[in-house]
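Go through this chain for my students:
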Amino acid sequence: MKTIIIDILSVFMVLFAVIDIIGSVPIIIEIKSKHGKIKTLQATLVAFGIMLLFLFTGEQLLALFGVDLPSFAIAGSFVIFFLALEMVLGIELFKPDTVGGSSIVPIAFPLIAGAGSITTLLSLRSEYTIWVVIIALAMNMIVVYFVIRSTALFEKILGKGGIHILRKVFGIILLAIAIKLFLSNTGIQIINGN
């Protein structure tokens, strides 16, 4: 039981870092100011649905292209690595899509359920049981819902400096996760010096 809880928390933290809803607060505030009210529940449920759909059908989709899950997990580790570099170095490697304003696009997709989070879900599925990933994803969607509802409050509490620091911290965590995913799916083992 203790191991399952630790696994859920680990997956939760990975997804929390990749979804980066706190770091997306300024973007959400900007979209809100340009397009008016955001339907928080709708955006959250659609993002959750997209990620669940890909979690369950992603493996079959990969099979159509002759790609196995460990290979996809390694590719995913590179995506996570580059996302982490963006967060740590403050550079832009992934160009955002220019889309119309609504709760579904761009909030649900690609801001929440983007390429990074979908890739991470499939990578995590190779490491953890499906139920651990689903529970951790559901927990993240609850956080996403409350963060979107409270964007103005978060901006006041954290300030631009606080959001900037959080992005850097989660970027470093993501770097470590990317390396772990790469090593565990290639079979490379690092000998512990202890």
User: Anything to note?
Assistant: The CA atoms of residues 148 and 194 lie 44 Å apart. Residues 97-101 have pLDDT under 50 and may be disordered. Residues 2-186 form one domain. The radius of gyration is 17 Å.
